[in-house]
Amino acid sequence: xxxxxxxxxxxxxxxxxxxxxxxxxxxxxxxxxxxxxxxxxxxxxxxxxxxxxxxxxxxxxxxxxxxxxxxxxxxxxxxxxxxxxxxxxxxxxxxxxxxxxxxxxxxxxxxxxxxxxxxxxxxxxxxxxxxxxxxxxxxxxxxxxxxxxxxxxxxxxxxxxxxxxxxxxxxxxxxxxxxxxxxxxxxxxxxxxxxxxxxxxxxxxxxxxxxxxxxxxxxxxxxxxxxxxxxxxxxxxxxxxxxxxxxxxxxxxxxxxxxxxxxxxxxxxxxxxxxxxxxxxxxxxxxxxxxxxxxxxxxxxxxxxxxxxxxxxxxxxxxxxxxxxxxxxxxxxxxxxxxxxxxxxxxxxxxxxxxxxxxxxxxxxxxxxxxxxxxxxxxxxxxxxxxxxxxxxxxxxxxxxxxxxxxxxxxxxxxxxxxxxxxxxxxxx
Length: 429
Ligand code: DSN
What we know:
Aspartate Aminotransferase, domain 2; Aspartate Aminotransferase, domain 1; 7-stranded mixed β-sheet; 3-stranded antiparallel β-sheet; 46% helix; binds D-serine
């Protein structure tokens, strides 16, 4: 263990154990998942799919991949599973390529309004190669189904995405299905954020309503980094060729050899998801998030809180992220709907409870954590982002210097470290 990398991993382990990890898309995976991920399966090439490979020596790999597919279908009640996508973005791109030709129309929720980059954002190739129509949210931060219907009727997309990365409400999958049927579009649910909640039975499932589902495996599902594409029974009835179209788009369309160690780790994760304790875990994530949201003056129905910092000043997301990090609390700055500042220096933060819940934290702990967060946010009051763009860089450099020396933040960090250090983290002593 002489590599400099192992020393750096120890440093990161310290951060993960003595800090509060509150980015809602992050989690702590189990030691068994890590064992599979770090196994000799990384040595193998298996281009193709089970029983139809381009390389020899895949008898065991076939068994592992088929097992992972079966588990995925069992967890989500779907008809066909593809477990090879390297992660969520390539999975979504594969789905797009399978369903829409370049230049044709797709529709998704705008990224600054809580959607995802790969659902047609202008910066993503899903927004460059295709005619992307984007829906948003209203003043109440909720999706306006009439807006979705009007846009769908006007633009006739071939593919409609339903799925979010910064949204606190339950999605109307049934309503989306009606709209997709009215315009003859494929409906795809990106459940990356909520798949663990769905598997745990604390969030409605889109499976009865959509044609295809995509989930990453490392968020609330608590597995390794990776993704799964699922074809529903409804999707299969609508288009019996969907499994083949999607498989072809993943390989050879977009990817080469699958990461067999990742496939095995996904199977281990799905075995864990099927244990009764996972349901309790999912329930606790939402209970914790509800208490945390309430103490921060808002409301959530999922694992996630999008908090506007407009009460603290203009464009406060960056300052908040930095101050919280100084205090040992990791969240991410985020745009709020109708963002008044900028995408890079936005007006909100996004935080959540999946990782804290894995460590065994409960409602009473959320009350304590909300107290620390509010104290930290008081330290940035008045540090408003300059309205003039050219002044921002220097201003934020100065702010960082000030926050680094801030005594109150140092005191909070001490308390956070003492508190967090008492909760176990899988794989860290
Ligand atoms: N980066 C993921 C998230 O944090 O929500 C989405 O890609």
